[in-house]
Design a protein that fits this description.
heterodimer, A: two-stranded antiparallel ribbon, 13 helices, B: Rossmann fold, 27% strand, binds adenosine-5'-triphosphate, binds magnesium ion
């Protein structure tokens, strides 16, 4: 058996052992509850992870600003929801989601245009550092307090304080065999799964999706096919950012509070780890990775509330040590 | 049909073409010959818009195309089949072909071109669901040419289609190129296999380290001392 196969098995064995320890020490009902919560949270991570992985696939960039795009999705859906509910307009959930998607798409595309495109022919590290800069800028700028800013700017920032997310859907809970489900989480999970199917369809079967894969594989030959790769790259950023927008409203409806404009940081990190776990650049990998990370984090947190953070990084370290190409990724020789 | 005037190309500091001029006439097969590193691929890359010339002009059907982006050049009917084939290995054969027709809007045209390509290369039909990376070198070359045909080219730029093929396959590819030409496609052929090039072409140019040395008729090129020097040492 090759070393690679061995590592793969080792990895899956690790996962299964961890899971069975958990189930045997906490009982079936508690475990199933946590696993269901984890899958639900994981669907949010998966949507964010897809953005990381698609952008990486097409321009080999870890878009650090992606977590912040997600954060803006949370805030946009929050503001829209508040406004619509105050005006008594129905359909607040769907409308807020649409606003979050459109805002994130515009922002994602704008960031690529302004910050990344001019650097495309430069060494890759240049773009990576720029992405870090964009991320820090968004988090810090939007956290400024409106009172301290001059006229036009004060309407652009979100401010550093807590906000509560409006109630867009009345919560209902159901109990099945001692496991508690709620409608919001189910709706979110359903939407996430639907979007993943749609995405898979686009990438696999449409000409645009084929052009995306071709561009990811070889830009120069893609150009010779008459593919305008700038448009394809824009489209990829738009897709990723739109999914992050949906993840944004999922976050709001699930947790109900917005801590600060830094809230994108942690989900961004977990989703990045999810993308690496699944194999960066691999779309089904990001989905699998997202669900796994959600489950792992939820279980770890249920054992000890601060364990979730550590475990996420532990997974990252283990993946990079044992199986750097991720669960579904192909092994590649990375060029510097 | 194609007119290249005083083309000068740099890769960073290195001058790869020193101002070459040549023409390709409608309906012909024209060869671009020269030793390794002479600048043949560079010339094709400039024509298809992958490289921006430092100086000089490229005209296609009396229109300047020098600074157009590659996809606009493809739209005009200039299709470049790159050196080393450049098939999308992680896509299926059929997907590769479909991408060849990326700019063709009419489904009917695509269908027609596709069945034409399958007729030229039946093996591509058998392998259509297979990943292109699993094809043999010769099959990949057929795919690369077939993919180029899907775009309905007026001018086909072929960069070393015989590279790495067995003599029998070289012969087959060569016959196919001839047939494509007879169907009305003008061809600019870059070849190391001088015998194949000379068999096929009406006319040819010889490049040496970035400058054009001479122009000649098919078989006459073979007798030329410079050509012998460049290819046979
Ligand atoms: N990307 C590049 N960067 C720097 N120099 C390059 C690059 N591509 C080609 N060159 C140089 O330009 C010159 C011409 O190269 P080109 O590929 O056009 O040659 P060629 O005639 O196609 O050769 P071959 O028959 O080996 O394919 C060579 O000296 C080569 O080293
Ligand atoms: Mg060459």
């Amino acid at each position: 058996m090759s070393r690679r196969r061995l590592n793969h098995l080792l990895f899956i064995a690790l996962l299964i052992t961890g899971l069975s320890f958990y189930v045997s020490s906490f009982g079936l009902i508690v475990s199933s509850q946590q696993i269901i919560n984890g899958i639900q949270k994981g669907s949010m991570y998966a949507l964010i992870a897809l953005g990381y992985t698609m952008v990486y696939g097409i321009i080999r960039l870890i878009n650090f600003a992606h977590g912040d795009i997600f954060m803006i999705g949370v805030y946009l859906s929050c503001f829209t929801g508040e406004l619509l509910i105050k005006r008594g307009i129905s359909g607040a959930f769907l409308l807020s989601m649409l606003v979050a998607i459109s805002g994130c798409v515009l922002l994602g595309v704008a960031i690529e245009r302004v910050a990344y495109r001019p650097l495309r022919d430069k060494p890759r590290l240049t773009m990576l550092i720029t992405a870090l800069g964009v991320s820090l800028f968004l988090g810090n700028f939007l956290s400024l307090s409106p009172h301290q800013l001059p006229f036009p700017l004060k309407y652009l920032v979100f401010g550093p304080e807590f906000r509560s997310f409006p109630i867009l859907i009345e919560e209902k809970t159901y109990e099945i065999w001692g496991v508690i489900l709620n409608n919001i989480k189910l709706i979110n999970l359903g939407i996430a799964l639907l979007l993943m199917i749609v995405l898979e369809y686009i990438v696999k079967y449409t000409l645009l999706g084929k052009a995306m894969r071709a561009t990811a594989f070889n830009k120069e030959v893609a150009l010779l096919m008459g593919i305008d790769i700038n448009r394809i790259i824009t489209f990829t950023f738009a897709l990723g950012a739109g999914l992050a927008g949906v993840a944004g409203i999922m976050y709001g409806t699930t947790y109900g509070v917005l801590q600060s404009p830094y809230l994108g940081l942690w989900p961004g990190i977990v989703a990045f780890v999810a993308a690496v776990l699944g194999g960066i650049g691999n779309i089904p990998g990001a989905m699998v990775g997202g669900f796994l990370m959600g489950t792992i984090e939820t279980i770890a947190t249920s054992i000890n509330s601060s364990l979730g953070y550590g475990v996420t990084f532990l997974v990252l370290i283990l993946v990079l040590l044992i199986k750097p190409q991720g669960l579904l990724g192909k092994p590649t020789v990375e060029k510097a | 049909m194609l007119k290249v005037e005083d083309l000068e190309i740099y890769y960073h500091q290195i001058r790869a073409l020193t101002g070459i001029s040549f023409e390709v006439d409608k309906g012909e097969i024209c060869a671009l010959l020269g030793a390794n590193g002479a600048g043949k691929t560079t010339t094709l890359r400039a024509i298809s818009g992958l490289l921006k010339p430092f100086r000089g002009r490229i005209l296609f059907m009396d229109r300047e195309i020098t600074s157009l982006p590659p996809h606009e050049i493809v739209r005009k009917g200039i299709i470049h089949v790159p050196e080393g084939r450049g098939v999308f290995e992680e896509l299926t054969v059929l997907e590769n072909l479909e991408l060849g027709g990326y700019l063709v809007k009419e489904r009917e045209t695509i269908k027609k071109n596709l069945s034409h390509v399958y007729e030229l290369f039946p093996v591509l039909y058998e392998r259509r669901r297979q990943l292109a990376g699993t094809l043999s070198g010769g099959e990949q070359q057929m795919l690369a040419i077939g993919r180029g045909l899907l775009a309905h080219p007026r001018l086909l730029l072929l960069d070393e289609p015989s590279l790495g093929l067995s003599p029998i396959l070289v012969k087959r590819i060569s016959q196919t190129i001839k047939r494509i030409n007879e169907e009305g496609v003008t061809i600019l052929l870059v070849e190391q296999n001088i015998h194949m090039a000379v068999e096929l072409t009406h006319r040819g140019y010889l490049l040496e380290t970035g400058s054009l040395l001479l122009e000649g008729e098919g078989r006459e090129l073979l007798k030329n001392e410079k050509v012998k020097e460049a290819y046979l040492g």
